[in-house]
Amino acid sequence: MRSLSECARRLTADRGFAGFTIEELCEEAGVSRRTFFNYFAAKEDAVLGFPALRDDDALDAAFVAGGTPTAGAPSADLVDALLELFIARWARMALTASEAERVFAIIEQEPRLHSRILQLVREGEDRTIALVERREGLAAGDIRAHTLVHVVGTLNRVVAEEFLRDHGDAPPSIDEFADRLRTRAAVVRELFG
């Protein structure tokens, strides 16, 4: 999957997004069209590195199963559990600074990719909100689930940007990423105490 994304990014940088077909990408990467669609739903997703089927089912199930809401109040460990879910997702991504820079540069030159990444981010938020609602037994659309996911998601984005800026292409240290995210969350708790 990673080699397909790298190849898609290189072709996009060299020829522009419209300058190659999925067939040309597959030929360049040495895979079949069927293999491509096993990993990605569209060419845009290959360039962005978003797989068609994320293998997050076990993570999601563990998160949902950990909920113990009582009398309409969220589980005592909800925030910490959501932080751990974001940390586990980051660990699976293993993105380096140069990969992120390439993706952002391509997004800037290809407006079609910009709208696709916004769509994927919204879908990810919606999926995570639904997980919080299921874990906590909340009705769909509960403002607490939305607010929590947006706050933790923003912290995650800030820490990811900071982490990539500070570490360049060094192998990502999940422990340091996790410490930074937990520290930011502690600041939010203190501020909203």
What does this structure look like?
The chain is mostly helical and 193 residues long. The protein has two domains: 53 residues, Arc Repressor Mutant, subunit A; 139 residues, Tetracycline Repressor, domain 2 (Orthogonal Bundle), CATH 1.10.357. The longest helix has 26 residues. The chain starts with a helix and ends with a helix. The protein is built from ten helices and no strands.
* Distance, first to last CA: 43 Å
Unreliable spans are none
Discrete helix count: 10
Enter the CATH topology name of the largest domain: Tetracycline Repressor, domain 2
Concise structural overview:
Residues 21-40 bind DNA. The protein is an all-alpha fold and 193 residues long.
Task: Set out the fold topology.
Blueprint: H1 2-15, H2 22-29, H3 33-39, H4 43-48, H5 57-65, H6 78-93, H7 97-109, H8 111-136, H9 143-167, H10 174-192
Helix pairs in contact: 1-2, 1-7, 5-8, 6-9, 6-10, 7-8, 8-9, 9-10
Structure keywords:
single chain; about 190 residues; mainly alpha; Arc Repressor Mutant, subunit A; Tetracycline Repressor, domain 2; 2 domains; 10 helices; about 0% strand; globular; TetR family transcriptional regulator; HTH-type_TetR-like_transc_reg; DNA-bd_HTH_TetR-type_CS; transcription
